[in-house]
Each structure stands twice: as structure tokens, then as C-alpha cells.
Amino acid sequence: MKFNLQQKKPYKSLGKKISKFNFSANLWLFSTLLILLCSFTGQAQNITINFKDASLETVLKEVARQADYEVFYTQKLLKDSKSVTVNVKNSSVKEALNQIFKSQNLKYTITNQTIVVTAGKGEDVGNGQIDIRGKVLNNKNEPFPGVTVTISGTNRTSITDFDGSFSFDNAPSNGIIECSGLTIEKKSFAINGRNILSLIVEDKISAMKEVVVTGYQTIARSNFTGAIAKIDEKTLNENINTNLMTAIEGRVAGLMFQKNPTGAAADKPILRGMGTFSSDQVGYSPLIVIDGLPTDLTLDEINPYDIESVDVLKDAAAASIYGSRAANGIIVLTTKKGNGRLKVSINSDFFVSTKPNIRDMNYASTSDLIDFEQSVYNRERARFSDTATMFSNYGDIGNSSIKYYSPLYQLNRDLEEGKINNADYNSTVAQWRKNDYIKDYSDNVWQNELRQRYNIAFSGSTSKQNTYVSLNYDESKGRVKYNSSRAFNLYAKSSFQVNNWLNATFGVNGTYSNDDVTDPDWGKYDIQKRYERITDDNGNLVISPFVGTGDGFTSSGTINPIVARKLAGLSGFKSMNFNVLNALQEGIENQNSLSLRTFANIKAKLWRGLSFNTQFQYEVRRNDNDQYYDINSYKMRYAINALTGYNPTTNAYTYVEGFSTGGRYEQSSSQASNYSFRNQLDFNQEFGDGKHSVSALAGFEMRETFLPRTIEQLRYGYDPVTISSAVLNNLALSQTGVPSYIFGSNRTLATVSRTQKEILHRYFSVFSTASYTYLSKYNITGSYRVDRADLFGVDPKYKNRPLWSAGLGWNVSNEDFMKEVKWVSMLKLRTTYGINGNIDQSTTPYITATRRNDNLYQSLQYTNITAQPNPMLRWEKTQSTNLGIDYSLFGNKLNGSIDLYHKYSSDLLATTDLDPTVGALTRRINAGALLNKGVEFSVGSEWYNNGNFRIGSNLVWAFNKTTVEKVTRAQSVASVYVSSPIDYFSENEIYNSLYAYKYGGTINGYPYVLDENGNPSITFDANGNPISTSIKTITNPKALVNKGSLTPTYTGSLSQRFSYRQFDLNFLFVFSGGNVMRKETIDMSTDAVNLAGITERYTTAQPNGNTRLYVDLDESVRTYAATISSQWRNSDANVVDGDYIKLRNVSLGYNLPKSFANKIKMASAKFTFQMNNIWYWSAAGNRIDPEVYSANSGTRNLPLPKTYLFGFNLTL
């Protein structure tokens, strides 16, 4: 029986997939983009006007309307203006204004999309009284709100509004205007009889090169007491960035990116060490904030071209206001916005990543592996009287214990059974020695990774609106053939100045990605023996009759050559032939992801210095995956054979009805969403002629996260043409199975999980923060927040624990006694203390259970308790103390910061033993503590600049030590400390330590370790042979030694810049160390080894100081091989340092001369060539790269590829 499915067909192109998306969603996105783009049109409009004897005011208003400009004038100034007669068509704004003002005794200027009308030359200023209107702008021609404007010699003052405007009536025409404020350099301007003033002030923050953006507020660094690092747009754009993480790497002291050694997941940022034992549940990465609101996006998912600056908040003063999500620090991202006339920025980047260098894996050669495998065969063969007896252990058709054996084993078997002669054997082996499966794999399966990225951004502003829109397309081909990805990103944000007291911002950020991912089983380059081949010398596919890989869908195992040969003679079974190039095209999974983030922000000025701000953000992510295996794919052929019955007597075949008539189609769909809603009041005011400055805010925030159930379906007998599948008895197939002729017993078929769950969490918070500055010298800051969530204990005292911080700052350089210290440009001392928290969403205060059906009696339902109640569940708490110095020396040529911190994390959730009478043996409760101590140092300098040639450097360095202060569950078995140091730890020890057995020595190739009393784990007889009955497993943790941290204790980077005329040369070195790793050793408990050391092992013929391998062990001790091997591999003799230095990237950029760029109608153009991962040095030696090395297991992974990049940026 078959039935139709209303679902997508596999193998759709990107274009087709996009076309299948919901039409209304597409229309909404398109309309949003269209509306935002239309906001630019006013800036590009030409002016067409026709007036006769019209007033100047009327004509100017029409020009402003068409150009979307603002006109700045006074009625008094226009009172004596002449009437205007003008007729222009499709003229620029400037051309039209020149015609309008040619007969006027007035002049105009255009500043920041504003037409400013002023008195003409030669007009007598006099000593009269005039009305003044003006604007205060920063050095980027942006409005500067909150500036104190004073008429010198009087007590008349005004504070600039949102648009930087101010006004005075009856001001002295020859007076002086003074502009002052905590964030600007005090500056005076002569009125000179002008009614309209445009005043540009120097931003004091930019002089100190930093402004703090905490997400809740923007504040001058001089008024801030917390530890913060800023990365500006110039630094972010020094190099071509693979993603935002690479843009940040090496720029912030104390921020490290933990690489996944296998490359299976994105790097994870860690700031100032680990603050929790629950890395999987709580997480240890900093909170990501975009334009003031937290997001669930990760750094690698954010378009780096949309980011204007990055602020990394490290301590409690900055982070406590975000509550329970910010104990690990915060990364605040500020996105770009429009500035002035329409600007179009175009980026195009091309990446080529080379294939991995397989030599770095330290593998033995094909010839050495053949010799080793032959030794293994000889050793095994010697244990049996004849060939048939030996190979009977590998099973045959109808035997449930079928085991795989290699082509070399089969070749030896054929020789001993007389099927081939010695000449055939020797010629075959000689040919095999020339083969190299890994080289074949590299040549035929791997390819240089190619990536191309295109980004176009439109930005601009007028006096009434500010808009930024970017479109990004990213396409890549993976290292393994048939792997590819495509992603499209839209970011659009527009702010509107509704009137002089109301501002509104709306935006959307959406990303759609479509990936094709091959079956991970075929991404392994060791799925066949080293002496096998993928293609012959002519490029033809080499078909293998069997391979040591099953289907993964059934409970069947692997087959061997004899089984494969017999199946080939049975017409009712499918071929088991295999070639990886064919298999790679089978079962390609198509992964689709759509994420949307919409946001709105409304600011209203309520009163002098007081404003109201409301923000809303909604995020949703949807993932749809589908995978299809054709009926003739290797895995489906294997699965069909595994579930096929056969009667040799009647030659009758039995198939699972419907299963063998089509392919396998699996589909899953998941979704997650969250929203944040925040309201706050902001107050910023100066008192006493600028002596006192107060900045405060208070508000509340609501947040919800929702994870609906995942929808999964699995169909067999699937036909992609008719979109139909077979109806199977999945319950019977998955539990009872069907008789299998090949494996001699029933084999089952896996089905999708039947467990369904939905996760909903809600949070409510109130918060406040305040800062006070006196005489621009002394700072006091504080913040307070209370979080409520549905995850905390039932007792109110656990629900309402406050999170708070306090800080002090001293701007030493502003003191009078520092005025004579000319070489100190800026010096600030600061200290903070505060309490933050973490939350574990996997633990609840209530008992939880799932409802299940009995497998035998379907009508019988019961509950399965999944978690015991924890009524005292509370936040993990982090107390943080920070002492810091910010400095700028020698005329701001040398600047940086030094921070010391003490971070104590308590009430950490840890697995703890319970009284068995409560119904459980263990429970995760708040019972642990960690201590992080560290120091951070950063220094930067533009230390040489003669105009044409410039040299600059930045150095960051950080040290961190994480110690386990409290743990209530001490393990009694040494092996768990050795194998899982992030799950098992001891008090007063370094967290994530490398624990090792004490090495005793090696006798006759047998290594031994010492127990807690110093006794050897192996006793030897007088001839140096091990006494098997004496071999013991070391179980007492006291026998272990702590060799140090597996996590680097110091990290840092050196960024070196050279610029000569239009050329920029940048180097980024990164370094890390203070940690240890296990040395790579060969496993002594198995013959499945392939490292180069197999030729240097201890043998009877080669009695050197090395260890034996499994093939060389005495029969009496082979039972203990796993114990000997584990204790040797994990002994302190096999520990190396993890320090390294890397040249992460080097880039050469060329900036097109502005004179030439202007000739071709461009504002700027830059071309960049860059190389990544060019060189490294490692203390471990032997071509070990610690970044992609599994430090605790002592195993290598594929090295990071060298990447070559070319990109250009054009600004129109």
C-alpha cells in the first residue's frame, strides 16, 4: 500500500527553494525593503522649480521639499530679501540655490543636509541685539544633543535638542558663544552678527579614542568605571574577515575563541575563564547584544559589514544590568547607520582554502602499514591449526557474528587455500605498496574550498530620517565534493525624527541559507585500507566488492569478503559494490534555515535631560532538513539485503513489503522564537556650570523564549516522482525485526524518535543604573537588577536575589597637579565590584516526568520520572572585583589599559550524591564554586608617522587561572579524572586539569606506572617478563598527578601595521600557552593503528627503549592490554606543553588615490590581498597544531587550511 505525501521533493535548487517560501512573508520582506530604499530617493532628486516674483522663503521651502533638506534661517534675516524669479529644470541643489541667491545680499551653506542662510559679506555687525538659531555638530557633521551652549559673560544657557539645535533671542551681535559638556572639548565661537550658526565641536570621547556602549546607554569612557574594550570600524576593516569572530580575534585582552578540534562546530568565545560547571546547560560564552537588545544569534551568523563597532564588557559594572545572562561578559555590537548624502558601499571577497596537508597527521606509509598488517595476520594465524579454523571466527552467511576482515587477510587466505600462488601474492602486494588511498581521497574527493561573498550597502540621512540597508550573498563549495552552501542576508534599519522630541527606529534582519551536506560516513578518508584505490591510473573508478561500513538504518553489522562473494552469486540480493565517489552523491542532506529579527525603538524627550525609551525585538528561526537515499544507493542496497530472507532449498526470497520498492526519505522541521520588550527612563543632566554630572536610567524588561516540538517523518519505499511511500509496520520492524539470511537472526529497522516536547520560558526584570561625575575627575557608578523567571525555586528568597554592582573612578589626568606632567595625556584609575548570575534551563524546581506506553501492552500507560524536584534551585552567582588603569601617553601616541580581576562563582550547579531514600542517587544542585583570577594588559601605538609612512602596533596579553574552590562529589575512581576533567574535579585544583598516572618505567617494551604507594602496576620476573596475574588497574585518585591546565592560561596577540602612501601592510600574530597536552601515542590495545611509530616499536628483533604494540604482546598479558595501554598513554611521561605562536594573517591593501577615484565617480576604492594561517610554531613539536589537537586524548585532527583571500571595497 502507498499513500501520497504533501511535501517537498529532494534536490531542489536554491532558486526553487526560495520560490516555495510563503508568499506573504516574501511580500512583507520585499515591501519593507522597498519602503526603506525609497527613503533615499529624496537625496538623489534633481530640482525643478519655476517662480516669478515669489518670496525667498517660499522658494527655499520648495527646494527643501524636493531635496528632502531642512532650511535654517530667521524671519528677521529674510525680512529685507528680494523677490525671486527663477526657472530651473533637473538641476542639482547647489545649481538651483546659486540661481536663487545670485541677486540676494545673503549667502548660503549646505551642512548635513541643511541649507543654512546667513548674512552676506560686508554687512555691518554693530553692537545691537539679534535673534540666533544654531546647530552644534560633531566632527562627522552629525547633530550633537545635550551640549551646554552659553553666551559668554552672562548666565544665559541653552541645551541642544535631539537634532543639535539651540536658540537665543536678543543676543549681542558681537558676543561669544561657548559650547561645553562632559563629552566635548570646551570651545568658543564669535557671533559676528550672524543669525544662523553652525558650530562644530571636538568630541572629547574621540580624543580619548573611546566611547562606551553598554547597550542600555552610551557614555563617555572618562565617566565609566567598568572594564571594557572597544574595536572601532577602522580596526574591524583592517583585514578581510571570514566572519565577525575573525574580526574580533586578537583584539581584546582576555577574550579567547575555543576552537572545535574537529571543525564540526563554530568556535566559541570565552571571556575571563569559565564561570560554571554546566557548560552544556548554562553555557560559557558572553551574551551577544545588537543595538541594545540581546540576541540568540552567534557571532558567525552576523554580517561583519553591518557592524560599526564592538564593545566587550568584562566586569560586573557593565554586565550586572543584563542580569542572569551576562555573568560570562557581554559583546555589544553597534550597527552602521546613514550619515549625510546617499552612500553606496560595495564589497566583494573571494576565498580559496587549500586542501589539508595530510603529512601533518603523522601517518605511516602504505608499505609500512602492509608490513604491519602482515605481522598482525601472521601472529593471529599462528594461533590456529589451519586457515579454515581461523577464518571461522569471522563468520559466514547465516552467522550472526560476521566480522569484517581486510583485503590483505583475504589475499593470505586465497594463498593458503591454493586459489593463488606466491607470484600472484607477491605481485599483488607489490602493486598495493604503490597505492595510497588517502592520496586518492585527497585528489578525488577533496577540493580547494572556494567561497565568494558580495555585499552592497546603501546609507544616508537627512534632518528627518536616517537609513541603512545592506544586502549580502555568500556562496561556498566545501572541502568534500558535493558539499556547498548559499546564504542571503538582508539588514535594513531606518530612524525617523518625527519632531523635535520624538524619534522612531524600525528595522529587520533576515538570513536565509541553503546547504547541501553529504553523508558524514563518506567524509572519512580512512573508510578503506590504505592500499586500496578510488580510481586507477587512467582515472576510472575502482569498484570494491565490499567495504567495512554498514547501512546505519538497520541493526546489521558489517560483512567480509566471503559474504560479499556469496551474495554476488545470489540474484535476489543487491550488489554490495562500493566506490566513495558514487556514495558521496547519495543521501545528500538539504538543510534550509530562515532566521528573522525585527526590532523597533522609540525615544521621546519628556523634559530637560529626561527621556523615555521603549524597545521591542522579535526573533524567529526555522530549520527544515530533508535527506533522500535512492533505492540503488549503497546504504539502501545494504539495508534491503540485511532485511531479506532466503531459503536456499526453494530458492525463495522474502522481502519486507514496500521496503525494497523505493528509497529512504527523512524530513525534519524545527523552530525557535523569542521576544524582548523593554521600557526605560533616561536622565542626563549637568549642574553647577558643569561641575556635577548625573546620568541615570531605570526600567523593566520582559522576555519569552519558545521552542515548539520538532516535526519529523521517516519514509521508506519513497518515490520522489510520485511523492509516495510505503506503509510499514514500524513498531514491529523496530522492536521485533525480520529474519535476515545474511546475519542468521532477526534484524530491526530504526525509526524516528517518538518523544515530543515543547519548551516555554518567561522572564521579567526591573533594572536601574546611575553614575555621578564631579569636576570631570571623580566617578561613582552603580546598578541594580532583579530577575524573575519560571525556572527558580518555589521559595521567594531564591526568586528575587538581586544582582548589583558599584564602581569608583578617578580621572587623574584632570587634576591640577598633572598639568605639568606633559607626557601623560590621559590617566584614569577605576574599580568595580558586583554580583552577576547564570541560569540552568535544564534543571527545574519541580518533579518532571514523561508519559509512556508499555511495549507489550499498548493500552497500559505509565509515567517515567526524568528529574527529581529541586525546590531550592537558584541562580548560579558570580562575584566580580576589578581594578583597572586606562592610560594615554606622549600626546596620545601610546595608549592602553591594565586590569586585575577576581571572579568568584558560587552556588554552581553540580552533580551531587543524595540519600537513596529520596528516590534518586544523584541530583544537580547548587553546590559548587570556581575562582578566576587574572590580569589583562593592552597597549597600542601609532609610533611613527611622517605623513607618507606610518607604523603602528597593538599588543594584548591576558593571564587567567581557574581554580575549583568547592565540589561536593569526590569520585573514588582515578579513571574518570583522567578521561573527563571538565566533569570530574578536585577542590583547590585547576579546573580542566590534565591528570596523569606516575610513570614508573619500561621493561622489555612493557610500560608500567606507580600506584598511590609507589608500587608498580606490573611485576616482572627475573627475565624481565611481566607476570600477568600481577597487572593491576590503578583506581585510587591519590595515585594521579596534576600536570597543569588543559586550557591555556595566557593568550594574546600582536597586530603590526605599516602604511606607505596608498599601501597598507598588516600582520596579526596570535599566541597562547601555559597549558599542557597529552603526547600522541599508539594504542597498545588494538591492531587498528596507523601512525608512523609502528616501525619504531619494541619487537624481539628490535629490542629498543620504545613500547610494544598489541601484536607484540605476550599471550598471557593481552587480556590486560587495555589497562596497560590506557595507563601508559595517560602517564606523566606523555605530557607536552601546549604553547604556540601563529601568524594568523597577513594582508596587503592598496587604496586608490582620491583624485583618481573622484574622476571615476567614486569616493574611495580599496583592493586587498590576504593570507590566513601561514605559519606557526608549537612547543609540542612534531608538526602538532594545538588549535586542532584534542589535548586530553592526545589525538590529531586535520590541520587548519591555508586560505588566500582577495577583496575590494568601492564607495560611491
Tell me what you see in this structure:
This protein is mainly β. Among the domains are: 83 residues, Carboxypeptidase-like, regulatory domain (Immunoglobulin-like, Sandwich), CATH 2.60.40; 130 residues, TonB-dependent receptor, plug domain (Ferric Hydroxamate Uptake Protein, Chain A, domain 1, Beta Complex), CATH 2.170.130.10. Helices cover 14% and strands 42% of the residues. The chain has a 22-stranded antiparallel barrel. Strands 16-21-22-19-20 form a 5-stranded mixed sheet.
Short description:
Belongs to the TonB-dependent receptor family. This protein is about 15% helix and about 40% strand.
Q: Nearest-angstrom radius of gyration?
A: 36 Å
Averaged pLDDT, please? 87
Secondary structure category: mainly beta
The CATH architecture term of the domain at 209-338 is Beta Complex
Number of helices: 23
Strand content: 35-45%
- List unreliable stretches of 5+ residues: 1-44, 205-209
By CATH's scheme, which homologous superfamily of the domain at 209-338 applies? Answer: TonB-dependent receptor, plug domain
Structure summary, number of beta strands: 60
Shape descriptor reads elongated
**How many strands, which pairing sense, and closed or not: the largest β-sheet?**
22 strands, antiparallel, barrel
Distance between the termini: 63 Å
CATH classification, class level of the domain at 209-338: Mainly Beta
Q: Helix proportion of residues, in percent?
A: 10-25%
And the CATH topology of the domain at 209-338?
Ferric Hydroxamate Uptake Protein, Chain A, domain 1
Domain Secretin/TonB short N-terminal: 69-120
Keywords: Cell outer membrane, Ion transport, Iron, Iron transport, Membrane, Receptor, Signal, TonB box, Transmembrane, Transmembrane beta strand, Transport
InterPro entries: Beta-barrel_TonB (IPR000531), Beta-barrel_TonB_sf (IPR036942), CarboxyPept-like_regulatory (IPR008969), Plug_dom (IPR012910), Plug_dom_sf (IPR037066), Secretin/TonB_short_N (IPR011662), TonB-dep_OMP_SusC/RagA (IPR023996), TonB-dep_OMP_SusC/RagA_CS (IPR023997)
Pfam family, one: CarbopepD_reg_2
